[in-house]
Design brief:
Elements: E1 4-7, E2 10-13, H1 14-29, E3 33-37, E4 57-60, E5 64-68, E6 74-80, E7 86-89, H2 97-103, E8 105-109, E9 115-122, E10 125-132, E11 141-144, E12 153-155, E13 169-176, E14 180-188, E15 194-196, E16 198-204, H3 207-225
Parallel strand pairs: 3-4
Antiparallel strand pairs: 1-2, 3-16, 5-6, 6-9, 7-8, 8-15, 9-14, 10-13, 10-16, 11-12, 11-14
Length: 226
Amino acid sequence: MTVEARRGGIVVPMLLVVGILIAVPTVTHAQSFNVDFGVGPSPSAAYGAAAGQAGVWNVAVGGVVPLLDLVGGSTSVSLLYPDAGWESVFDYGGTTGDDEFLLDDFFTWPPTGPLPFVVRGLAPGAYEFFSYSFAPNGANSWVDVPGSPEGFQLLGGAWPGSHQLGLTYALHTLTLVEPADVTINVGVWNGAWGGFNGLQIVRVPEPSALVLLVGGALGLVSRRRA
């Protein structure tokens, strides 16, 4: 049975509408990424972390890292590591499963920051950056994304059993009007050592793009009816 919806006197097949809604995430996943820093086991693809973004986790262990998208496809986006520092692991009490795999390995450095991590090759659009810099002994880590309205964010504290903004991760938003590098600065507070556990880059679907897709589809249906 064909299910149809009526809009302005035009009968639109619902399968077409559903197809449009599916197409939007398909477009955005190619510019959305999960990254795990360090040499320990990485989270599973079913793990969405704080962003709720399940998908392939890139393993980043220094240098220039070409990034795979959420379904494991190659992209032109890469992550550039800072020159100082190294990968390490530490068993934080209380973390288990995929939370442990994300937070118990990290890129670390002595108190000499800030250190810049550069995401190169992102397409124009709106993005959210979830940066994990978990310091379980106190608020010893900070993250900043130049150009983001959220600015400097301090992180750290005892593991609460799940991810919490301002404790296990920072959240920054940024809109790119042209292809550009995005710098994520990480550092330490009060002379402590630092650790950067992971990163999620979420391409935010733009309402205007959805409107254009739906409008184009309705126009196509209208021409076919005529």
